[in-house]
Amino acid sequence: xxxxPTDRPDxxxxxxxxxxxxxxxxxxxxxxxVVAVEAELVGGECPYWACIPTKAMVRSAELVAExxxxxxxxxxxxxxxxxxxxxxxxxxxxxxxxxxxxxxxxTALGGRLLRGRGRxxxxxxxxxxxxxxxxxxxxPTTAVVLATGTSPVIPDIPGLxxxxxWTNREAVRAGAxxxxxxxxxxxxxxxxxxxxxxxxxxxVTVVEHGGGLLGREEPESSELxxxxxxxxxxxxxLNTSVVGVEHGADGFTVRCDRGERLRAExxxxxxxxxxxxxxxxxxxxxxxxxxxxxxxxxxLRVVPASGDRPGIWALGDLTGHGLFTxxxxxxxxxxxxxxxxxxxxxxxxxxxxxxxFTDPEIASVGRTEAQARAAGVRVAVGGTDLAASGRGxxxxxxxxxxxxxxxxxxxxxxxxxxxxxxxxxxAIGALTVAVQAEVPLRALETTVWAFPTFHRTIGTAxxxxxxxxx
Length: 470
Known about the structure:
Elements: E1 6-7, E2 11-14, H1 18-29, E3 34-38, H2 45-49, H3 51-68, H4 83-93, H5 100-107, E4 112-122, E5 125-130, E6 135-138, E7 143-146, E8 151-152, H6 168-172, E9 180-184, H7 188-198, E10 203-207, H8 219-231, E11 235-237, E12 242-248, E13 251-256, E14 261-264, E15 266-269, E16 273-274, E17 312-314, H9 325-340, E18 353-356, E19 361-366, H10 369-374, E20 379-385, H11 390-395, E21 402-408, E22 413-421, H12 424-437, H13 441-445, H14 456-466
Parallel strand pairs: 1-6, 2-3, 2-7, 3-4, 7-17, 9-10, 9-15, 10-11
Antiparallel strand pairs: 4-5, 5-6, 8-16, 12-13, 13-14, 18-19, 19-22, 20-21, 21-22
């Protein structure tokens, strides 16, 4: 085997998604010689195929829905949905899937980019299979940062392989709304895309093997969303598994375990994501690859099965603390502090916010009631109906939502919260601070919430919690 050209930078970053890009840029800006390895687009899934394009789709769909609410509140309006402006806007926001600006931003900081796939081949050694066919051997003197993210899970359903099914990547590149769409999976990705297309006239059906949508969220918010989707004409099959797929000139036919045969022009597979740990070569440094995440310590340093910890850090989706850009960027900060020796607190995941951008929007932070009870917390719960608030009345007919607070009754602090309704993702910020800072409930009781805002419903739910405390 020919000897590969060897390079000895200070740091190698494998994967340039949001977390890898943030870490590589900061380390390069600090004066380290950083080589980043990326096979696809610098910036990763979020700006090109996930967060940004899907939220552009959601925003356009919101405008369509608002147009239909005009009668009875503001006169009359003729709404004629057209996907073409949506597709143009998605292309503009993704720079037509071109990462030139991101690459230039990184190299301007002094970083170097290798196009290809990196793999650990031993302690302090990374082999790169270049996109141009060339090979490279990197021997970083200080650190390796793993930030390769995840890929869609494609279930082993008979007949699925080889068909032109969609993942989120194909969905965001759609030039037209399909006549009909069948979505396998009732999680955030599938539901955001499902509702967006439904509002542009697509006949949408969602098949979910579990007993509810958004299985990791509070059941009250999941049920609220289910009712809303059903009222909007989206078909939802719960406790249903797909057991076979056929594709032909007329589109897809899906067979379900309860006997249903569902047909649609397009099929979206959105059952989750997972990392490819084997491809990273973790076994070469004694790290097990049988789990769903990379084992790390509180500073995100990779922990082998035995022996000394190698100079390897992991961040983002690989660590298993949520497939969110904000988690990846937070962890990038921790990794950089550790590598640069600048100290700071260890990783803390008590107050990670999450938002599903459906209508109603579902936002939450911390633990659900069930999670808190499972952890042995003596729980106090309070809730209120968003529609019954002053802002709910002003917002108009069709407004639905709720606030649910989960408190530790012994310590007198919030450990979790959920808001469902218009702009819930904005309102959850106040509760994120409360959970993270462990603001005493009695201090929150004296908070003055502006009227009439949706935030004011937090005070109503809090009053119910406080009635359960000594």
